[in-house]
Amino acid sequence: MTGHVSSRTVSPEQIKACAAAVGFDVCGIAPPAAFPELGFLEEWLARGYHGDMHYLARNAEKRADVRAIMPSATAVIMLGTVYNADRPYSAEQCDPGRARIARYAWGDDYHTVIDDRMGRLVAAIRDIGGPFEHRAYVDTGPVQERVYARYAGLGWIGKNTCLINRDLGSWLFLSAIICDLFLEPDTPALDHCGRCTLCIDACPTGALTAPYQLDARRCLSYLTIENKNEIPVEHRAAVASHAYGCDICQDVCPWNRKAGVTPDLPWQPRPGLDAPRLLDLWSRDDTELRTLLKGSPMKRAGVRRLRRNLAVSIGNCGDPAAADDLDSHDEETCRDPLVREHVAWAVEKLRG
Length: 352
Ligand code: SF4
Ligand code: SF4
Prior knowledge:
Number of strands: 10
Distance between the termini: 64 Å
Strand content: 5-15%
Helix content: 25-40%
Bound molecules: iron/sulfur cluster
């Protein structure tokens, strides 16, 4: 849709009220400028920190400025959604027999839920001000959401590279609506990390190589989700019971001590993904696992990669009896060479 709506017909305040009404916890406006932080991506890619996420390099030009996606852009409406369900942080969950799953992945697939909410927000803005051009993205588009979120006043990019909101913490899904509405931008957020280095100190693999610098190739989130190949042997012990993703550098952040907690239904832990026992997950057949992942963000990794991760986590659980459960399972994915190699590693580790 094209056709400009002037700031006389729709205001940032009206947009923020509509955003709250459809379920967004925080909303701000950023200008579509070439912010210096957008340029850091190039250096990050040049260091190879993106690992096998080649799609990041392929559309790096678009990621450098939203006007490369939509030349008529005049504003970026940034939205934050708290996904922090009321459960202890993973650091407090010390049972090595239970799977640690990244908090964002406990509930429904955020792409679907947030896409739907953005659609309702766009419709509400149109009801007020008439048609306008827009592009809406949640995570999968070529938009550096965190940078625009910072300039929209939603929070600052912490040394753990997450967007942190002073009041809500960092358990936030970010999404963006690039539009041709003329809207007064918000004030950029200031950095409140100060001299803290808790996230850098707590990272089990040294993936935070320096403040604000993440080497994805060492990050458990990358290694257990995006990575389609073997988990490097030198990082397998650090995987511990992280069967899908890692929250450690957010768990330890002081700004998450009083983080916002949401009763929003889509983000509540699904049955079967609420700190499940590793061996219970492993013992399910492939069909059951596929059903479990359906409609969850975890389907991104799929059953094969989940089994690979489970094998490593079970290998780290310290119970020699678990080796028999790993070894005797005969599902299709268990016979996959990638999974077999991780099972062999785990069995050897468990049997000492
Ligand atoms: S998610 Fe985990 S592995 Fe990745 S940087 Fe944070 S603490 Fe390190
Ligand atoms: S743990 Fe400390 S340094 Fe890391 S993001 Fe939080 S406040 Fe910043």
